[in-house]
Every structure is written in C-alpha cells, then in structure tokens.
Design brief:
Strand content: 25-35%
Order of helices and strands: EHEEEEHEEE
Shape: globular
Mean pLDDT: 92
Low-confidence stretches: 126-132
Strand order of the largest sheet: 1-4-3-2
Largest sheet: 4 strands, mixed
Helix content: 10-25%
Number of strands: 8
Distance between the termini: 23 Å
Radius of gyration: 15 Å
C-alpha cells in the first residue's frame, strides 16, 4: 500500500542545511540512509523520520507552490521563534502576498527555500488548531 513519506527540501549545501534544520526543528541526522547527496533527519526520541534533505543544483523558487508551515501556539512564541530561526541563518522575506492581518511570517532557509512560521492562536481556524 502506498503511504505518504516525508517532505524533502532541495539544498545546495548539505552540511549547512543539516546544521540549520536540525537546530531549527530539534532533529538529528540519521546515520543510516545517507550519501553525499542525501540526509534523512529524524526525531531525537527515535519515533521516526521527519525531513529529507537532497542536494540540488536548481535554484529555490521565489513563490513555491509547496512549502513547510512551522507552528507556534501564540504570537509571542511566533516572534521568539522567528528571531531564533533568523539567528540560525534564516532570513526574513519581503513577501508581497501577505493578506491583511496575516497569521504567518515568511522566512527563507540558508538555501533560500521559503517556509512560514504560523501563529495558531491567530490562524483562520479561530483557535481550533489542526493537529500536528
């Protein structure tokens, strides 16, 4: 039976991407299933794979159709996480598609892959948070 695997991010600098995403999401790089062009990031408690990193020569898309949403429970947590991620090497993006009163902040990882940090307390669900 076919099942959903893990999200995979294309990166130009694999060691830099491993350093960023492991610190950003509290993950660890798996020792198995790795190569010069691939790393699997797993949860530190051993509960499974979380993210794949694939060496890519293609540039990041400025308006990707698929991206990661990272969840924060409050506006304060969202602001703190944005600061922490920028400190790890992410950058804020001058996003020209923000809706009025957005519940998300757009960032780019060190390889310019776009992702969002969402304040779930302000999300359109009105506090009925989707399960992670």
């Amino acid at each position: 039976m076919l099942r959903l695997g893990i999200p995979v991010i294309g990166v130009t600098d694999l060691p830099r991407a491993v350093a960023f995403w492991t610190a950003a999401l509290n993950l660890v790089a798996a020792e198995d299933r790795q190569s010069e062009t691939w790393r699997t990031l797993v949860r530190p408690d051993g509960s499974g794979r979380a993210l794949g990193l694939l060496r890519s020569d293609s540039p990041a898309e400025p308006y990707p159709r698929l991206h990661l949403d990272l969840f924060a429970d409050t506006a304060g947590e969202q602001q703190a996480e944005v600061r922490r991620l920028v400190g790890l090497g992410a950058r804020t993006v001058d996003w020209d598609h923000y809706p009025p009163d957005p519940d998300f902040v757009v960032l780019a990882d060190p390889d310019d892959n776009i992702f969002c940090v969402v304040d779930l307390s302000h999300a359109p669900s009105g506090g009925d948070r989707p399960m992670p």
